Fold each of these.
Amino acid sequence: MKRLRRITAAVLVTAAVSALLSGCIGDPPEIYYSVPQATERFIQLQEKIDEVISGGATFAPPAAGQNRQSVQLQDLDGDGSNEAIAFFKVQEERPLRIYVFSENGGVFEQRAVIEGEGTSVDSITYTDMNSDGTKEILVGWRMGPTVKMLTMYSVLDFQPVELASTDYSTYTVTDIDRDGDSEALAINKSESDAATATLYNLMSDGEMVSSSAYLSKDTGTVARIMRGRLTDDRAAVFIDSTRAEGGLLTDVFTLDDDGNLKNITIRARDGASTATMRSTAVYCSDINDDGRMDVPFPRTLFQQSETVYYVIDWYDYGSSGRRSIAMTTYHNYSDGWYLVIPEEWGDGITVRREDSQQGERTIVFSRVRKAGTGSEEQTVEDFLKIYTLTGDNKRELSALPGRFQLLARSDAIFAAEIVDAHGIDINEQLIRDNFKIIYSDWSTGAI
């Protein structure tokens, strides 16, 4: 049984290290159906790890975050050679172990061990926080079902030193002061108190300093953390949180003139960023790719039926908390596209959906006008149709008289038709330029 365990451990380490070292592009497909072949140096690393396992340890990799392998490679000391970081659990009072093996002359040696309490490692991050050439290690320890502790360690000269520790619900790494060094931003939410955001900044002399600011009260869970810039080019962190009533709100954090963390959207009298509350789950995004994060505000349109449609007004923020509109869009999430609404079209725009023909889904843009002077009645004048065509005859449908193609994919063709301008500044090129596909932004500045 012991030999089987050792062989299994060796295969796991080889697979983990090989996956980290190899780039898949250009590799022949047959290599994915064979056991990875370890080099001599990594066979020696396997032997070191086997020594730990033979003492009763088992692999216990991080459960969350981007770094989840049992064995991870990082150049911690900045010498150009990777250290191997391995995660274990043992039957002792402090059961969690993070081993650091450093390579010297092709030979790995154990250089450091970080011990932790709790049930598992939740996540791990490696980042240089003070430009000394050595990466600090940020470890999230899971203490129980709902309690997590974030501990920041220096591993200078492979001597683990705890720099700071805090309980947290989530955290991110950012450079909010734009000095080239990373800071850790931890969100701590208890059941009784308002959530706080605490920024940890490691000074060049090794001292850790921190500053905190409140998130909006009565918020639920943090849904997304985004990094971006403000209109005055200051770096900021945008935190989208759920609301008990449904929907989202956004707290925007930056640094004040003294370098302390501040929430620029929270209102003192409300204890919340009430101006950013919205009933729909639309997240912050750099919608116009100018480097500034935009906060969305859905706006309901004139209703032509029981179905409610809306456009999204996207706002930029300055460090004083003042906002300015950046763009207005109509998002068709079900068909995967959106249209930038030109400012010249004004506010009197509405939309409706028509799906009367199989394989052809249509969004109709219309202009709303009063029927006449003094009249309360309103008329709706159609001026644009955008089609999502998915049937076998989608190419023929996209080429019908009056229609022009916006984008062709294997599964769908998007086309448009200008029905009647009705005095609106509109042409084919404008629609082509303003038509966009909705892409997933899994890792673009977000957690």
Amino acid sequence: MEPFRVHILGCGSAKPTLRHSASAQVVEIRGKLLMIDCAEGTQVQLLRYHINHTKIHQVFISHLHGDHCFGLIGMISSMGMLGRTAPLHVYAPADFEPMLKAQISMFCYGLEYEVVFHPVDTTAAQVIYEDRSFTVKTIPLDHRTPCAGFLITEKPTLPHIRRDMIDFLHIPVSQIMNIKNGADWVTEEGETIPNARLVTPPDPVRSYAYCSDTKYLPGLHRQIQGVNLLYHESTYCEEKIKNAEKYHHSTAAQAAMVARDAQAGHLLLGHYSARYNNEDVLLEEATQIFPNTSLSDEGMVVDVI
């Protein structure tokens, strides 16, 4: 299987702490890097964890709160000073476009690469990015400002060639792609070898869901059913559920209910309130509902399996 992993750059919430940076992640999938949210200090985190910024070509911003986007203009500026020439594509709520253009005009005069803005409709579940390897689909969420999560799903790969059969039958290399695409093989004696004997099944398709700031949505699981890895904000513990309701956030227990109902493979908690000096209370509440839960932390790299 090719790498599909999530690099946690920040998992704190709006109030700065010395324990956590605010929201930012890099998703590595089939040799490509894409960024999800870009809080203040993200470019420093890229340096700290040795992530090559030149490979980041898409940035997805979930919503327009500072702890999710204040770092973008700084990163854009630094990329320019480091000699970037490849376009950077930014996917964010439409209201961000005039602000981003104004920031670039003021702080990045003479930028030698293009920043391409793509407005995101946070009310609809739709594919906003697609290439030959994967898709990115929006997940409508409910926060105090328009907000969307992102579902990243691999595209199916071709079956694997059985090297022993290829060698035994002396099948030329030029025919391997045809066989991967379903062709049988006819020997010199006229015997047809069915495709099923020449290949093994392809790798299973994997998916990752990033659910940014949102109040608990009982129906959210239907949009991410069967997801391999789910990151869901867990700002509060249950004793602060009134705060969660007031500010349109979720508790760790509510995040676990979403993971349970979605039949997710693994749950990552994050976006911790600054009131917690130790997030074990959040983990304990979540694991009582969904045992395969982990706390995200800066520098953590999580494989999507």
Amino acid sequence: MIPLSLVEIASVVGGEVVPADAAVTVTGPVVIDGREAGPGSLFVAFVGERSDGHEHAAQAAAQGAVAVLGSRPTELPTVVVADPQRALQQLAAYVVGSLRGEGGLTVVGLTGSQGKTSTKDLLGAVLGTTAPTVATRGSYNNELGMPLTALRSEPGTRYLVLEIGARGKGHIAELAALVPPDVALVLNVGHAHIGEFGSREAIAAAKGELVESLAEGGVAVLNADDHRVAAMASLTTGEVVTFGRDQPADVRIEQLELDRLGRPSFVLLTPQGSAPVQLQLVGAHQALNAAAAAAVAWSLGLAPAEIAAALSEVSTLSQWRMELRELAGDVTLLNDSYNANPDSMRAALDALASLEGSRRIAVLGEMKELGPGSDAQHHAIGEYAAARADHVLVVGEAAAALHRGAPGSVLVADNAAAVDWLRETLREGDVVLVKASRGARLDEVADALE
């Protein structure tokens, strides 16, 4: 956050400072949870169905917050506005605009049906080796998370990497309009949230909004292997850089291999030369995520050798995404429980199949937001899982169609029953995948095993 007085903030967001003579300057992070405030913080207060953030101003103050942005006065100096969410977004747009003009900040926006967070983590790590970089934490990619990420930018920040999600038409356009990207990366068009969009064509149109929002002179980085994404080249008159494995592309993966832990190695090809990459991440799909990150980095002027070296150094991603753990009894756990859709389920099951072990056990739960085709999609994943795992454990009645699609699978009622089954069944050398949509909370199963 750049230092701003309350008077300056009020001017940006169209608010009123209460009390009017409050001479306060915000120098610390902008937060929406009082527990996360620090010295010099601005606490943004919202009124929700179950709680009123204004009532937590004192908690924020105890952590170091010096002011509040809210819809009514609090015990701290407050910038009062009609709509705190809109004010937060306006403030983010102002800060990024200021840093672009003064410090040469470059904004990268990325979206896709799956792989966003892993690719964002990889890209943030690569760019961070060359200059100060701010990237989205976890999957903080919505109407609150994106501006909060943008507001972490400081005068010295060179790159801002924003993961942008969508649950409907116009969502990406609205967020990208606040902070138009200099580079727009679109990974893929899959089945995630298809229940809300209605079709993959509608999903493609929504993802394409990011390309349409490019700042003047911007670059679109597109997946050549996904024809819906490749077609987005027509949405911009700017430069287009492509990445892929199966189709001709500017940045390509060649000679892809997996080691005994399912970690990909490959040769990264670019117009400026090639370099070997040895990822420490699990799953062949991570190679394409790495290629996407590499394509962005290459478009920003990084050399193939430094990109490859940085990718090879990344050892962890955001929480509960393809986390590989060695457990007692020589059991290996692959925790990918943060979220799931049919495409990411297949990728995770392929990763499980690539791991060496005495038996491969897939612990799977519901994939949410699939709409009318949900049962068919779950059934198909059940068939896919049965072909790649020695045992399939399905958790929850909501995933019963997955159980029906996997001959010989076991269906249990809840997470506690899943843990009990695993504790009775696991033996030395087993490899266990845990995956479902976030709402299924299968991270509890993984935690219990650890």
Amino acid sequence: MSLRVYNTLTQKKEPFEPLNPPKVGIYLCGPTVYKPSHIGHAVGPVIFDVIKRYLVHKGYEVTFVVNITDVDDKLIVEAEAQGTTVPELAERVTANYLNGINRLGVDSIDIMPKASEHIGDIVKTIEKLIANGYAYAVDGDVYFDVSKDEDYGKLSNRKLDDQNTHREVVGEEQKRNPGDFALWKSSKPDEPADVRYDSPWGSGRPGWHIECSAMSSRYLGDSFDIHGGGIDLIFPHHENEIAQSESASGKPFAKYWFHNGLTRFNTKKVSKSDTSMQEALKKMTLSTLLDEHGGELLRYFLISTQYRRPIEFSDTELEAKKKGLSNFYRLFERTERVCGKSAYTDPAVRGEEWSKAPKSEFADFAKDVDHHTERFFAAMDDDFNTAGAAAACYEMTTRINRFIEEQNLEAGGSEAAKTTAYAATRAMMDLGRMHGLFMKPPEKAGGGGEAVGKLMTVLIDARAMAKKAKQFEIADHIRDELKAAGVTLEDRPDGTLWRME
């Protein structure tokens, strides 16, 4: 099945046909770095990291660009409120953002340009717009004239008459049309020197929209393949990007527009009565969530919804995904136990183990594994449906567990069956890695390390001694208290295993 993608510009699914295959250019609108990142800032980077991983699997050579907006009115206001400078605030918040996406396993970004470092490119783009008759300068400000762009509104399907509610607050009386937007804003007397840049129109700073147009064309060219961002950016940001970019270059801008759904806080699932808890959840930063839940769980949570749909965020949803992720971890542990080696440390390339496995005597099982694999790729080829692909992996996990039981591998079993079970587990792990999951073993005890492991050994031994002495109430108390603390014990013939849930 060939890859099909939903294009916001045409409002339909289309075959994915890059402009210059095998090269693919992706531009994703990054954060405005004035406040610490929240869970919503993680959605785009994770989704487009998966998209790049899958395109690379398909054989494409992908350049992935994510910008940093460090020149914006919001930074001026926030820096003043904090008693700091715009550059210091931007650097601190950018570091927080980069730390967050790194912990989420987002490592495929090739270029991260900052608006402050591309003022020259921005000025040149504005000069082109003025020369082409699409922009005009008034007293140090420069505006884009939307009446000159005949197909303005083609992304959002808005007409010029709808623009009255989107007037610029500063200098709006200078505009020719209510919908005209700022390309360059002149410096005001009370603004700090660190947000003043030289230009042909005097000291000032760029508008938000023109920053992305200048940076995307600098690294991907006037025309490129994929432009992405949250659905809230369709208008006015992405609409204005198209207008100014195509008016400046005379060429089509981005061929495909991908928009991810927004994060919604489902307070009904968070708490029935505790409003303070609901408010606290809304204010959680990405760093706090990562400290509490870890990067892999949050990543799995985000890809468990098809990217164009809204993401329901609540403790209930997180707990459900945590249980689902634990099923994968348990299979990896079980396979290592019965097969004698870890799939995490296997150097084999994707699919190698499964292609060499002695599957002929386990034809039904092999057929099921291949079926789930096909479902994974069919889902990904259908507009990067990560939710459907993740479901296929989950069902493959269930089938592998059943095979281990059918072949009685916990008690021994044949070497051929063990090799096949291991190869199937590795095949499933390889699929998960296309989603950026299972790249390394999860930290036991939530990162508690060696000390926690030793403590658990003491508690498990104490429980075993209590059971041997027929002090079952004490043994049950240890088990129940550990469970309440998020630790599950699993009694097996060869000893007791523990894991953090």
